[in-house]
Amino acid sequence: MATHRPEDPQVPKNITQLLKRFSNGDNKVLDELIPLVYPELHRLAVTYLRRERREHTIQPTALVNEFFLKFTEQHRISWQNREQFYGVAAQLMRWILVDHARQHAATKRGGDRKCVSIRNVAGFGSQPDIDLLALHDALSKLEAIDPEQARIVLLRFFVGFTIEETAELTQTSHATVEREWRLAKAYLKRELTKTNNGS
């Protein structure tokens, strides 16, 4: 997959500076920040929604807009850099989609759960689709045990970052990301198997 870094080398620096100003209470920087991060956030939203096997009820633009609403509420976060920002963005988008999936399941009285495709994710066996809420629950358990592994799953599976990009975002080595990704997939596969077996 092609790298997602902006071509202009000044963009990451500008994003970091604006985030730090936002941390200091300068809400006016949003007018400058949003145009810089919007293209990447829209790409993240498209990647997220492409994972859903069934027709989804939220579009990428709407998902990004919901993210920005939640982002402006994150006043307690001390923003350090763009890598941290995109990591938080991925997490918030995950929660937004899970909330939508729960509402959808409640509307359908549990009979039409949202599924996500894992057809192209090595390590999960031959089952191509899994329930989004089951995956969310399994990932939440992993977060309690090993937050770093859970973050790698978030970036690799949900966002679609490469090993190299994930290593950069988590500030770890290529080998570490590969190892943690492998262990995380094994854990999630066990948890999802338990769920499927009703245990």
Question: Numbering strands along the chain, what is their spatial order in the largest sheet?
Answer: 1-2
Question: What's the overall geometry?
Answer: globular
Q: Total number of helical segments?
A: 8
Structural class: mainly alpha
CATH topology of the largest domain: Rna Polymerase Sigma Factor, Chain: A
Summarize the structure.
With about 200 residues, this protein is mainly alpha-helical.
How would you characterize this protein structure?
The longest helix is centred in the middle third of the chain and has 26 residues, at 82-107. The radius of gyration is 17 Å and the shape is globular. It is built from 8 helices and 2 strands, in the order ααααββαααα. Residues 1-7 and 117-128 have low confidence and may be disordered. A two-stranded antiparallel ribbon has the order 1-2. It has 199 residues and is mostly helical. It has 2 domains: 9-109, Rna Polymerase Sigma Factor, Chain: A; 118-199, Winged helix-like DNA-binding domain superfamily/Winged helix DNA-binding domain (Arc Repressor Mutant, subunit A, Orthogonal Bundle), CATH 1.10.10. The N and C termini lie far apart (37 Å).
Features of this protein?
single chain, 199 residues, mainly alpha, Rna Polymerase Sigma Factor, Chain: A, Arc Repressor Mutant, subunit A, two-stranded antiparallel ribbon, 2 strands, disordered N terminus
Q: How are the SSEs placed, and which strands pair?
A:
Elements: H1 10-23, H2 30-51, H3 60-71, H4 82-107, E1 115-117, E2 129-131, H5 132-145, H6 147-159, H7 163-170, H8 174-196
Antiparallel strand pairs: 1-2
Helix pairs in contact: 1-2, 2-3, 2-4, 3-4, 4-6, 5-6, 5-8, 6-8, 7-8
